Amino acid sequence: MFFLILTGKMLYIQATGQVDGFNLEAWAKDQREKKEVTPAKRGYIYDRNEMVLAQDINVYRLYAIVDPSFSPDPEKRLNHVADPATTAEQLAPIIGMDVSVVQDILDKGSADGRFQVEFGREGTNLTREQKLQIDALDLPGVHFIEEAKRYYPNGIFASHVIGLAQTNDDQLIEGITGIEAQLDELLTGTDGSVTLLEDRYNDPLLNEEVQVLEKQDGFNVQLTLDQKVQTILEDALSQVEAEFNPKRITATVINPKTGEIIAMGSRPSYNPNDLGNVTNWYNDIVSTPIEPGSTMKIFTLASAIEEGVYNPNETYQSGTYKIPEITRAVPDYRKHWGTITYAEGFQRSSNVAMAKLVWEKVGTETFLEYLKAFQFDQLTGIDLPRETLGRLVYRYPIEQLNAAFGQGTTVTPIQIVKAATAIANNGHMMTPYIIQSITDPNTGDVIKENTPTIAGEPISEDTAQQVLQAMESVVTEETGTANGIFELPSYTLAGKTGTAQISGGASGYLYGRENYIFSFIGMAPSEDPELLMYVTVQQPELEATESGSKPVSYIFNHVMENALHYQNIQPDKDQVSTVNELVMPVAVGLKTEDIADNLTSQGVQVTVVGDGPTITASNKTAGETILSTDHIILVTDQPKLPDLSGWSLREVVQLSNLLKLDHEIVGQGYLEKQSIEPGTPIASGDYILFDFTDFNPVSPEEETKESGVE
């Protein structure tokens, strides 16, 4: 009976492969079957010239087998760590651990009956070089698991744009921010595998079929960014951050004819290879609305020109503007310009000029239509995550006037950039984009390719050209707020400065000469712009002699000049210049009248200091090559201080050095005040204060929501 029962049980097991519901066949297969995963590569991210911006690199995780049973014949072959002391001594220096700590891990694992042990953080993310060093030691029982890690070759480089991807708890690389997160599904590939049967010693069984599943690597993404231009931008941002310690910086370079983003960066930023303490994960250019300040005036001017109600030669009374519907007048940031033309008002960034244009000429309802035509009430549609919409504040008369000069209403920097493409591109406003193409590396097929898209045509070509000319005058005319500060050596420039208040404080806004967002939007070459750049610097720490334009101009001038060259855009200043080269004649010791008349007759600007008959000093030496645009200073033997209003800082310092004065400088730009009255006789060693202060805020009692700055 026992024999029959046993035989029957055996026959049953043989026929069904099961014991008490347990599938022996599946268990056996599972014991013998080994599945080697072939990891798919995450897609690469490239710049426009196929320079790698983000890629996978192979790293290695170290482990050691400590179970003696894994070495069935230790005399012939050791498969486990049999000598923990020697293994620790050779392994520790390579992975950066103490020998005693490594040996303790090995000893403890063996004592606890564990099959294998790992070595914590130091045993992960090992480089190929470290792996090869350990392989060369031929240590029994020491093995590696190959893993992928996301790597960013340029470190802090468009970090908020490219974003960050890291290995998650399932050992898979996952996009967290930026393009990495937005296109995570496309960038992530599908792993392949090789399945085979092995014996207990991990040797393949003969004559067994091997099943292979091909991997599918993730799609590659090519951006419109130019690595060279972006690098220049990042360097400029880092320098300004170190020198001025601002709360925020943003900078965007775009091709206004296509909408392609050439460079985009902001501070604070982070290094995705070494995060440290990240204080800002957001891309402020698309995610943080700000009050734009006077850069909005280019759109106010555009609406007036388009409506046919703008006469640049018409005059108005600057200073303040009061209508019955508001309780306090709209102020200019300076109040002593008097009666000036609207053209000069735009150059000086007059709030009154813009408010009068909207209220008296364009009309508030029509102006609102233009704000919407420039799409300040819409997302730009840029292919970056977390884009946020600004807010048009336009219900009451004071809000409508404030909107004319960029106060109250909020926009994101990318909204300003998008709207400005209409000015630079003959009235055609382009949708900004940063993803150029997406390619399947497994087949070579381009699965998506972006092309330039016209988002709207808010103004005509003629209006765009007139606004460009007005913006160029802001840079070239002495009355312009950008004159002498924003300048490109090789290219003509059209631009507009901005100084905006920041919400906060008891009265709604912060006060103090540093508590503003200083900005500049510029286009070059000015006649037919190939690049457009917008820079904002929030709350920089300034010296008493520095203005908010200094950090902004450093970024803009440096980046824009180099970007234009790298884009192979032909310099145009020689084409518009009529400068002649001259030779400076002998002047010192000769008659004042003769030398001054000689230079003036050749078109050179000459300032004679004093009314003495003989020249004693000059800012140019005899025989020196000078230009017809140079300013020649001739000091006589009876020097009297001239009126220096409008002189540049360089010219004022030259004069002071010639007269050997004890001078002090306040501010930058062009001279506003001098502590010694013009016409006063002056001697070597006299003290003089030169005041270049470039804004003079009005008191909170005098202002509306607009600040006392332009």
Automatic annotation (TrEMBL):
Gene3D superfamilies reported in the protein's UniProt record: 2.20.70.70, 3.30.70.2110, DD-peptidase/beta-lactamase superfamily, Penicillin-binding protein 2a (Domain 2)
Reactions this protein catalyses: Preferential cleavage: (Ac)2-L-Lys-D-Ala-|-D-Ala. Also transpeptidation of peptidyl-alanyl moieties that are N-acyl substituents of D-alanine
Transmembrane segments: none
Subcellular location: Membrane
SMART domains: PASTA
InterPro entries (alphabetical): Beta-lactam/transpept (IPR050515), Beta-lactam/transpept-like (IPR012338), PASTA_dom (IPR005543), PBP_dimer (IPR005311), PBP_dimer_sf (IPR036138), PCN-bd_Tpept (IPR001460)
EC number: 3.4.16.4
Keyword Disulfide bond: no
EC main group: hydrolase
Main location: membrane
PANTHER family: PENICILLIN-BINDING PROTEIN 2B, PEPTIDOGLYCAN D,D-TRANSPEPTIDASE
Family: Belongs to the transpeptidase family.
Name this polypeptide is given: serine-type D-Ala-D-Ala carboxypeptidase
Source species of the chain: Halolactibacillus miurensis
Gene responsible for this protein: pbpB
